[in-house]
Amino acid sequence: MTDDELFEKINKIEIRESKERTVKSYVLRNNVISPKAERILKSYMGEYGLFFDDGYLDYSKVFGNDNPVIIEIGFGMGDTTAEVAMRRPEFNYIGIEVFLQGFVNLLSILGDRHIENVRIMRFNAVDVLNHMIADGSVAGFHVFFPDPWQKKRHHKRRLMNPDFLHLLATKLKKGGYVYMVTDWEEYAEEVLELSSSETLLNNPFGGFAPPVTWRPITKFEQKGMESEHPINELWFERI
Ligand SMILES: C[S@@+](CC[C@H](N)C(=O)[O-])C[C@H]1O[C@@H](n2cnc3c(N)ncnc32)[C@H](O)[C@@H]1O
Question: Alpha-carbon distance 99 to 85, whole Å?
Fold first, then answer.
C-alpha cells in the first residue's frame, strides 16, 4: 500500500460520514493528519491497525493466537486501553475510536511498547460491529465514559441505547460481559434500566457493580472526579 492509499483509508470515515445523515454518537473534529501523525501511521499501522471492511474478522489470523477477544469502544487517547492490555495479557483487544488524535496516540503507545495483544480501528463502532464482528464471538465489551450528551434534545445521540445494547449482547459469547463506566449519574441510571429489558443480558450485581482491580483511571474519569461526579460501574453478562 502506498502512503497516499494509507492516509486515504485512515480518513475513509470522513468520506462515509459526508454521505450519511444518520444520528451519530460522536462529532468528527481535528482530522488533519500532521507530519508527526503521518510518521506514526506509516511506522505502526501495518502491525497494529485494522481497516474497515465488509467481512467478519478472523481473530486467530489477526492476533496469531486463540485468546478471547475484548472490544473497547471509544478509547479516547488510549492510555487506559494499553494499560488494561498489559495488566490482562490473557485477552486480545480490539479498540475502536473515531477521534484521529487519540487513534494515533494509541498507535504510537502500542508500537513504542511493543504491546502485541491490541489492534485498533478508526471507524464508527456501530458499523464495525454490524459488518466485521460475528455473533457470539466476543468475550467482553469495554465502554469507558461514553459521551453523556447532556442536553435532553441530544440524548438520541447516546451510544448506549436499547438497539446498541442489544447489538452488544448478540455479539457476546455466553457468559461474556458488557462493562461500562460513567460519571454521568442519570446516564448510568438510564442504562441500568435499559439492561433490565434486554432479555439476552443478566446483571449479576442487581444494581451498580463494584470497581474491578485492573482498570486504571481514564482521562475523562479524571475530569469527572474533578467535578465531583460519582463514578458508576455497570456490568452485564450474556445469558
Ligand atoms: C468521552 S470520550 C471517553 C474516552 C475514554 N474512554 C476515556 O474514558 O478517557 C468518548 C469517546 O468515544 C468516541 N466515540 C463515540 N462514539 C463512537 C463510535 N460510535 N465509534 C467509535 N468511537 C466513538 C468519541 O470519539 C470519544 O473519543
Answer: 20
